[in-house]
Amino acid sequence: MCDKTGTSIPQIGFGTFQIPPEDTQRAVEEALELGYRHIDTAAAYYNEQQVGDALRATGMAGKVWVTTKLRNCDQGYDAARVAFDESRRKLGVDVIDMYLIHWPFPAAGFYRETWRALLKLRDEGAIRVPGVSNFLPEHLRAIIEDSGEAPAVNQIEVHPRFNQPGVRAFCKAHGIAVEAYSPLGHGRDIASEPVTKAAEAHGVTPGQVVLRWHTQEGRIVIPKSKHAERMRENLASAGFDLTAAEIAAIDALDDPHANVSSDPATFTHSQSWADQHVRGNI
Ligand SMILES: NC(=O)c1ccc[n+]([C@@H]2O[C@H](COP(=O)([O-])OP(=O)(O)OC[C@H]3O[C@@H](n4cnc5c(N)ncnc54)[C@H](OP(=O)(O)O)[C@@H]3O)[C@@H](O)[C@H]2O)c1
């Protein structure tokens, strides 16, 4: 999978949100052993250190694709640079493959200058691909107008019952690759009828149908599982092709109110440790 700059990003990655810090090193080592070559973390998950420990223990630091993200409370030009260095130290790499602004946090009004900080870090060679997450068209338009440069990647919530056709169309029109987070809808969307029907037709699991629905449409996916069997299953989801009718039937499940995450226009949590702890995310 290549973004618009021609950089190759492994299309199926391993997500680490809500894997407690004490379990993260083992889970990431297991994922790497099973063949994952793309790990997704964030400063707000408070497990970057343990992702780094797994990379160091397996000798994979610098050899696999690692994405991390800037917390809301670190937005701003200077603050973003400080936070970036902290993430780089914890991950134990000189260059971060992909660094994303985690949320636009429009109430703070810093995302334009934060985007400029990421572009500067890219120009300095410290980030391979600067990108964004949870950006709606209005936020994407604002950074494009301000900096003259669209991000290569927008990591957004996409799963069968909440597939964001509007944001995806905007991204497509601007050459922005879509990376689907919560690609399985927290595991809830896999029981939908068009999914189970396609699974039966292709002799695969419902989870594999959902992931193939994403990858066949060109999206990067980062499913998370604590179980080796599911990690293996998710990574092995590319060996068949869905028909156009099967894809259309899954697309048609879209319900604009079926999001499992927050609304980017109003998400204003700081993502500090205390904040994430109170919200039960760590
Ligand atoms: N940028 C953002 O704001 C943002 C927000 C949310 C998530 N993310 C990223 O996206 C990653 C994935 O999202 P997510 O964890 O929210 O949701 P997800 O990957 O859609 O779903 C994970 C859930 O599905 C279950 N599962 C995994 N594989 C399965 C399979 N093959 N069959 C049935 N159930 C399965 C898992 O259970 P077990 O663990 O018990 O197997 C877990 O409960 C995160 O880890 C994080 O890296 C980013």
From TrEMBL:
<dbReference type="Pfam" id="PF00248">
    <property type="entry name" value="Aldo_ket_red"/>
</dbReference>
<dbReference type="InterPro" id="IPR023210">
    <property type="entry name" value="NADP_OxRdtase_dom"/>
</dbReference>
<dbReference type="GO" id="GO:0016616">
    <property type="term" value="F:oxidoreductase activity, acting on the CH-OH group of donors, NAD or NADP as acceptor"/>
</dbReference>
<feature type="site" description="Lowers pKa of active site Tyr">
    <location>
        <position position="69"/>
    </location>
</feature>
<feature type="active site" description="Proton donor">
    <location>
        <position position="45"/>
    </location>
</feature>
<feature type="domain" description="NADP-dependent oxidoreductase">
    <location>
        <begin position="12"/>
        <end position="187"/>
    </location>
</feature>
<feature type="binding site">
    <location>
        <position position="102"/>
    </location>
    <ligand>
        <name>substrate</name>
    </ligand>
</feature>
<keyword id="KW-0521">NADP</keyword>
<dbReference type="InterPro" id="IPR018170">
    <property type="entry name" value="Aldo/ket_reductase_CS"/>
</dbReference>
<keyword id="KW-0560">Oxidoreductase</keyword>
<feature type="domain" description="NADP-dependent oxidoreductase">
    <location>
        <begin position="194"/>
        <end position="254"/>
    </location>
</feature>
<protein>
    <submittedName>
        <fullName>2,5-diketo-D-gluconic acid reductase</fullName>
    </submittedName>
</protein>
<dbReference type="InterPro" id="IPR036812">
    <property type="entry name" value="NAD(P)_OxRdtase_dom_sf"/>
</dbReference>
<dbReference type="InterPro" id="IPR020471">
    <property type="entry name" value="AKR"/>
</dbReference>
<comment type="similarity">
    <text>Belongs to the aldo/keto reductase family.</text>
</comment>
